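input
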Amino acid sequence: MRLNYLEYKIEPKESSLWETYGENDSVITDPGSVISKGYYAFRDVYLDKQNVKINVGRFRETLVRAMKLIDQ
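output
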């Protein structure tokens, strides 16, 4: 079985963190500062507290590429 990974990077506004913390908070503008506090700080913010609302228009391109891979 052949597996392929297709990356889709969300925009800040696609994250619930945008509304929770605001566009100027370091959680949005400088994720590295949160990551530098360690795994548990990272997990608390980005894994436990975040929900994502995918922009279907942007995500379409990823789906089209996936369909092309299936057809091969």
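quick obs: Residues 21 and 27 are 7 Å apart (CA to CA).
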